[in-house]
Write a structure and sequence with these properties.
The protein has 330 residues and is of the alpha/beta class. It has helices at 3-12, 19-27, 33-48, 90-102, 119-135, 149-158, 174-177, 183-196, 212-225, 251-264, 276-279, 284-287, 307-317; strands at residues 51-61, 107-112, 139-143, 162-164, 199-201, 204-206, 229-234, 269-272, 293-296, 320-321. It is built from 13 helices and ten strands. It starts with a helix and ends in a 9-residue tail after the last strand.
């Protein structure tokens, strides 16, 4: 039994790994990669078997954002040539839900750009969610930015199951990425969601010139937040953003990040998210031995791979789609 298998068994038995071991995962030589991946898979299989949750994004409002996030093509400081539009109407949001249903997606994610939603935008989402719940067998996740308490309560009452608000990076690195809101603003939003009784979803973007110690900090911050779902995004640097041309990642390191997240957050839904196609590349299937969730279809302003390719990948791996009504959220 390798040291990584022994460590994985300790995690299954309830041990929290040390920060030293967490950093060691990111720094292992490539020759150890399959050994530590085997450890991550033991943890993943213990809690989730070979099931994979599918998620799909609908970008219901694009661009027009006053924030200055350095990675984002929708920010006020981006010159990227993206589509910009106000909140989509209910019928269009419902069409997205129908597409998600046809693709066997379990969670449909309604996303809107901006610092936070107006009350009228929340009402539009609420109206759509109520009809989605009546028509489709879908979980609904909303991602609308910084919420007010009364807005969170409206979303909860409408049937929103999950709310996403990513930490994105470490507290130490936050001001290098954005100054238009604080790290604590993000933490506070996740805490509000938890208090409202909505399942919290919060994740990261890796590859934004952070240190490996920052990545370890992200993993432990998400553990402290007790986020049910952790999307792991890998920077897809977009021309016209401050991070244009940044290319720090390789597929093996991305795999190590997913392994780290599994060891630190063993019982949580770890989702391979934006940038997986351009960063994990041919190692995408290996990522699912650590993670248990993926996005299908396109992202906010970048394209994903064909959903048929994702379904084929799962079939080739011998993994099963985990519909939301078969198991509870992590």
């Amino acid at each position: 039994m390798s040291k990584w298998t022994e460590l994985a068994q300790s995690v299954i038995n309830g041990l929290e790994i040390s920060r030293e071991d967490a950093l060691r995962i990111l720094n292992i030589q490539d020759k150890e990669l399959l050994e530590v991946l085997q450890g991550a898979y033991l943890i993943r299989h213990h809690y989730f078997g070979n099931k994979v949750k599918l998620n799909m994004i609908m970008n219901t409002k694009s661009g027009l954002c006053p924030e200055n996030c350095g990675y984002c093509s929708q920010s006020s400081i981006s010159s990227a040539p993206i589509k910009k539009y106000r909140m989509l109407d209910k019928e269009t949001i419902l069409q997205g839900a129908d597409q998600a249903y046809q693709l066997n997606v379990g969670t449909y994610c309604i996303v809107a750009s901006g610092r936070g939603p107006s009350n009228s935008e929340v009402d539009q989402v609420v109206s759509a969610v109520k009809e989605i719940k009546d028509k489709y067998n879908l979980k609904v996740c909303a991602c609308l930015g910084i919420l007010k308490p009364d807005q969170a309560l409206k979303l909860k009452a409408a049937g929103v199951d999950r709310y996403n608000h990513n930490l994105n990076t470490s507290e130490n690195h936050h001001e290098n990425i954005t100054t238009s809101h604080t790290y604590q603003d993000r933490v506070n939003t996740v805490e509000l969601i938890k208090e409202t009784g909505i399942s919290p979803c919060s994740g990261v973007i890796v590859g934004m010139k952070e240190t490996r110690a920052d990545v370890v900090d992200m993993a432990y911050s998400l553990k402290a937040l007790d986020a049910d779902s952790i999307p792991v995004n890998f920077l897809h640097a977009i021309d016209g953003t401050p991070l244009e041309g940044t290319n720090e990642l390789n597929p093996r390191y991305c795999l190590k990040v997913l392994i780290l997240m599994r060891f630190v957050n063993p019982t949580k839904e770890i989702r391979i998210s934006g940038g997986r196609e351009v960063n994990l590349r041919s190692l995408q299937p290996l990522g699912l031995y650590a993670a248990n969730s993926i996005f299908v279809g396109d992202y906010l302003t970048t394209a994903g791979q064909e959903s048929t390719s994702d379904h084929q990948m799962l079939e080739d791996l011998g993994f099963e789609i985990d519909f939301f009504n078969e198991t509870t959220y992590a």
